[in-house]
Amino acid sequence: MLDNLKDGLRTAIKKIVSSSGIDEELIKELAKDVQRSLLQSDVNVKLVLEITKNLQERCINETPPPGLSRKDHIVKILYDELSKLLGNDTEFHFKSGKINKVLMLGIQGSGKTTVSSKLAKFLTKQGYRVGAIGADTYRPGALVQLRTNCEKSNVEVYGEENNKDSAEIVKNGLKHFENSNIDVVLIDTAGRHKEEKDLLDEMTEISKVSNPDLALLVIDGTIGQQCFSQAEAFNKIVPVGGIVITKLDSSAKGGGALAASAATGAQVMYVGTGERIDDLEQFSPTRFVGRLLGMGDVQAVLDLAKRLGDEADEVRMKRISSGKMNMEDFFYQLEEVTKVGSLQSLMETMPGLSGMVKEDQLEVMEQRMDKWRYIIQSMNTKEKADPDLLNSSRIKRIARGSGWPEHEVKELIKNYKNSKSMMKASKGRQMQGMLRKLGMG
């Protein structure tokens, strides 16, 4: 996704990270590199000049907070400014206990029917009961396409093949779903152009009939900055609550599309990243920028830090960072990782680690961690507090209790000792540095 922008920004960051010292000249060079990357991705010139001016001024004038190096602080400023450029995280939530009506809008060829199917699948996976109404009476095969795609996620589609009155179809469709225990109804409409008055009048009529909770404008990401005028024109007819950008996977103009859409004031809520029905994701500027910069999901790391900070026992953290951890501390760390989710998703969120470990390796690591949790739970209190007590007879007993062979118990002990030795050798410097960055040190 947006490979050119990604490569350009990462190259700019590498210059900062690999430099022996930071001076004003290097900061100006960073601003120019970022400027070039954004312009090549079709971001509006005025926005680019604004963001690079802010970037340069903040990098020169701001003092890094305690525990954060100047290099890290500069990367964080770049992260902040790019996130600001792409708008805010979406705050829209579907309400429970009622049918949430979502009106799908867009010009012809933007991929509206495909997005409706993808969104149906996405919401179904989130636990919502979804229905769809096919109200595109202009394009032959639109209703068939919607039904075929929605079948894959067991979503019922209401449509009337021989009725050309789209507003009436919407009215009948909503009545059909009235008592069907549905949470969300997606209304797929005909593609239209901002100059086509008849179609725009029809859209106004559909909006009156449906009274949507959310109007989603679907825009083709390959048109770049033109997204702004499109979104503005539609917004005058029906207030646009959110934007979906399609074809972001193949577009050199994707940066322009994202920035232009955000500039309209409507939030970019979803992005299409491929052809498959699963290739739709919720858009978050902060998470998206983290991935662009190769920093992983910075916001997720901050969320994790807060959770750990709230729950962490200060004495335990000091013990771990000074290399004096016991098996209970080791178990504590395994439990914290599983609270966050899979190891794979955690690694993807960690700055510097994103993409470095292969998927099959992560699966092996996850399986190993599961074993270790069972093994540690089979130890008694004394053994957890002092793992040096673990002789061959204790290892046999623990193996029997956990259901895993003795060599797995020995593998755990070996890894525990290695971790402890590393902590001791560095006197916790590495851990303390990381904890400080996460706001826990």
From TrEMBL:
| Residue ranges occupied by any AAA+ ATPase domain in the UniProt entry | 98-275
Biological source species = Candidatus Nitrosopelagicus brevis
Q: What is its EC number?
A: 3.6.5.4
Query: Which one GO biological process term can you cite for this protein?
Result: SRP-dependent cotranslational protein targeting to membrane
Supply the domain comment: Composed of three domains: the N-terminal N domain, which is responsible for interactions with the ribosome, the central G domain, which binds GTP, and the C-terminal M domain, which binds the RNA and the signal sequence of the RNC.
Q: Which gene specifies this protein's sequence? A: srp54
Q: Which GO terms describe its cellular component?
A: signal recognition particle
Please name the GO terms that the record assigns under molecular function. 7S RNA binding; GTP binding; GTPase activity
Q: Which InterPro entries match?
A: AAA+_ATPase (IPR003593), P-loop_NTPase (IPR027417), Signal_recog_part_SRP54_M_sf (IPR036891), Signal_recog_particl_SRP54_hlx (IPR013822), Signal_recog_particle_SRP54_M (IPR004125), SRP/SRP_N (IPR036225), SRP54 (IPR022941), SRP54_GTPase_dom (IPR000897)
Q: Belongs to which family?
A: Belongs to the GTP-binding SRP family. SRP54 subfamily.
| Residues engaged in binding GTP | 106-113, 188-192, 246-249
Q: Which residues form the SRP54-type proteins GTP-binding domain?
A: 99-294
User: Which named protein is this?
Assistant: Signal recognition particle 54 kDa protein
Keyword Cytoplasm part of the UniProt annotation: yes
